[in-house]
Amino acid sequence: MEMPFADFGCLVFSEREMADRLPRPVYQSWKKTVANESTLDRPTADAIAHAMKRWAMEKGVTHFTHWFQPMTGGTAEKHDSFIEPGPNGEPISRFSGKMLIKGEPDASSFPSGGLRATFEARGYTYWDVTSPVFIRDNILCIPTVFVSYTGEALDRKEPLIKSIGALSKAATRVVNIFGDKDVRSCNISVGLEQEYFLIDRTYFEKRLDLKLTGRTLFGAPAPKRQELDDHYFGSIPVRVSEFMKEVNQELWRLGIYAKTEHNEVAPCQFELAPIFTNGNIAADQNQITMDILRKTAQKHGLACLLHEKPFDGINGSGKHDNYSIITDDGQNLFAPGDKPAENIRFLVFMCAFIKAVDTYPVLVRMSASDAGNDHRLGANEAPPAIISIYLGSYIEDILYSLYQGHESQKGKNEIKDFSPVTTLSYIPHDNTDRNRTSPLAFTGNKFEFRMLGSSMSSSFANTVLNAIMAESLNEIADQLEGIKYLQDIREKAVDICRNIVHDHKRILFSGDGYSSEWVKEAERRGLPSVKSFIESVQVLNDPQVVRLFTSLDIYSEKELSANRTILEERYEKKMVIEVRTLLEMSRKDILPAMSAELNFYAKTLASAGDLTPKFVKERLSTLSGLIDATDKACAALEKGWQKAMKAPDTFSKGKNIYYTVAPLMLELRKLIDRYEMIASREFYHLPMYEDMLFSL
Ligand code: ADP
Ligand code: MG
After folding, report:
1. Residue-by-residue DSSP string for 304-331
2. Ligand 1, atom nearest to 320 Cα
3. Measuring from each residue's beta carbon to the nearest atom of ligand 1, which residues come in under 6 Å?
4. Which of 238, 360, 396, 425 has a 20 to 30 Å separation from 418 between CA atoms?
């Protein structure tokens, strides 16, 4: 019998594989490069490339690709074969160190936000030695970063790697100050819970909106929604479990620890969570996971929807980003000791996080958002667009006690309501309790960032968390460095924490984040509430944000402004595709269906004469009214859209789209939904919510 995990990681050129296959000095030289202690020289690269090629060809691989992540949110690859003509005309295989390290994909059509004028359109990919090489579909995939001819980042990976470096330095400083001198570096651990929908492929194929935009642009609610909560953690349908089995096997072969899978809240919604790994690899593995989900679904006659809000009226999908900081000797810096109150280093890291988030709430919000997530955030099922932190009463109590300068009252069962509001009741939680309504929840030894959209790469969100944490920790380290005795350091640290709680307690909130009271309360606290993604993008212009990224050498000013342009342009393009698709479907599917149905009743009327039932007459007038209204709504949308596009710059265009065009889309949608509620299946052929959501 074959053991289920026997081939775990067999498609990864793992560290063990390298140790086995490389001459010792080459292996050690590679290790040093990964640890950022030296750079690869040519002979070493050649030796690694050779071993890699041998390994891959033994597995039937014929091509290689520099796998990269342009700022489209997805991944890109261009395949090259190992094959070359030999000296006597016979085919030989070749893969050199140079081919491994550097590529020039001539990918001039990827978004660059003006970083690449066409005369310098070249972009280069460079091997990211910290993420393992893997095989997919007989192609050797080499994770790379993507940069312009002049060295600017054209992807989200390079900045992520730089941000991990900046955070590592800052966190290590603080750890060293508290006496742990052996720690030399830190990394982030990230676990990404991936939510997604599965529907029957035949329905997917029939919906142009799903195919082109990833979401349904209209659809009346099904008679059954998620009110019974019978899907959540329910038994997994047979088709889906077959699909999951294959997904798991594929992921395991690629060395990805797919761990849990279950039904989510909405019908047809599922979740897959891997075991956490370092932040850079987690980002890559999540990209691979999304790709495998999509392709495996197709094989099983299913469609995997990764959009944040494929269906209105039921829950959308997120990608919870579980985030912690780990030292090179394996200590989790967000893990409280046995007595957290005395574990001052832990409290310093908690306070650093509080300060970081409260200093840059809009940046944090923006890092997890895009056009799709606008439909999800604040929709009473996902975190609101207002950033706050939930610590759990245990930790919160400790911090407030520290702030007030007396011993923690916990245990004496005397939890004080420190919240400045009395309208909000304070519900005591214990340390392990979860607040599912908080965008950033402390869950025992990590923060769970629940805002991130299901289709998004985790790279930018973690780049932001790293950057703001690095700055916050550096400021704390500046105050502590130079103090000689540990006792004095601890006292000073308590002082620092006290000040942070004083200055930043407005960001702490343990109540119901979905409630309307919270929106008002947040406003009173002065917490920013940025409604749309497009508005949040402007934060990249903020001088404080520019200073943050440039001083830590994560982004240059030029790169930031290019990023802004790219995000704005992508928003505009995505929305325009939605508008066009909605118009197309209205004109080619909806209006003809309505008219055919009208015709049917008109004929009935003609033949039944005086005997025509009231129902038919009423239906005729309803349909006639709906047709006119729908036609008018299409014209209004078309006009509104054209007008919105006249704005002088991408930001104004985006804002117009959000505030004037999206409402017009909604108007049109309402009419279509009204028709769907009464449409006869004889004339209306698009799959409806009740078909799509209850078909597995
Ligand atoms: P829940 O659904 O209750 O939030 P899951 O078990 O589905 O929990 O997901 C938790 C995720 O957090 C997993 O990916 C897990 O590996 C990850 N995780 C656990 N501990 C840490 C940690 N210290 N740092 C980062 N991620 C972690
Ligand atoms: Mg979670």
Report:
1. EE-SS-SSTTS---BEEEEEEEEETT--
2. 4
3. 189-191, 193, 260, 273-276, 320, 322-324, 332, 445-446, 448
4. 360
List, by residue range, all CATH 1.20.120.1560 domains of the chain. 572-693
Greater confidence (108 vs 254) lies with 254
* pLDDT one-digit tens code per residue, 557-602: 999 999 999 999 999 999 999 999 999 999 999 999 999 999 999 9
User: Cα–Cα distance between 160 and 323 in angstroms, integer?
Assistant: 14
Q: What are the beta bridge partners of residue 302?
A: 200
In the chain, where does the domain assigned CATH 3.10.20.70 lie?
Answer: 12-154
Q: Which class is domain 572-693?
A: mainly alpha
The residue behind tokens 């109150």 is 341
Provide DSSP, 445-472. SSEEE--SBTTS-SHHHHHHHHHHHHHH
**Dist CA 215 CA 411 (whole Å):** 49
CATH 3.30.590.10 occupies which residues in the chain?
A: 163-555
Give the number of whichever ligand sits closest to the CA of residue 256. Answer: 1
Rounded to the nearest angstrom, the distance between the alpha carbon of 276 and the centre of ligand 1 is: 7
Query: What pLDDT, in 10s, does the model give residues 174-185?
Result: 999 999 999 999
Q: What is the pLDDT of residue 424?
A: 23
Looking up tokens 């090259």, which residue turns up? 80
Q: Which ligand is nearest to the CA of 320?
A: 2
Q: If we measure between CA atoms, which residue out of 676, 528, 520 comes closest to residue 597?
A: 676
Using the mean position of ligand 1's atoms as its centre, give its distance from the Cα of residue 190 in Å.
8
Q: Which residue lies with its CA nearest to atom 14 of ligand 1?
A: 191
pLDDT of residue 121: 66
Residue 447 makes CB contacts below 8 A (sequence gap 6+) with: 322, 323, 324, 334, 353, 389, 440, 441
- For 12-154, CATH number out of 3.40.50.720, 3.10.20.70, 3.40.50.1820, 3.40.50.300 equals 3.10.20.70
- Return the pLDDT at 551: 98
Start-to-end C-alpha separation, the chain? 32
- CATH no. of 163-555: 3.30.590.10
Mutate-to-test residue for ligand 1 from 280, 281, 322, 448, highest number of ligand atoms within 8 A of CB: 322
Contact criterion met (CB below 8 Å) for 548 and 465: no
pLDDT > 80? residue 488 = yes
Average pLDDT score over residue span 107-119: 71
Tokens of 452: 């991130």
- Long-range contacts of the stretch 553-556 (C-beta < 8 A, 24+): 553/162, 553/166, 554/159, 554/162, 554/163, 554/166, 554/463, 554/467, 555/153, 555/159, 556/152
Which ligand 1 atom sits nearest the alpha carbon of residue 274?
Answer: 14
pLDDT, one tens digit per residue, over 308-366 is: 999 999 999 999 999 999 999 999 999 987 777 668 999 999 999 999 999 999 999 99
Give residue 226's pLDDT: 79
CA of residue 191 to ligand 1 center, whole Å: 5
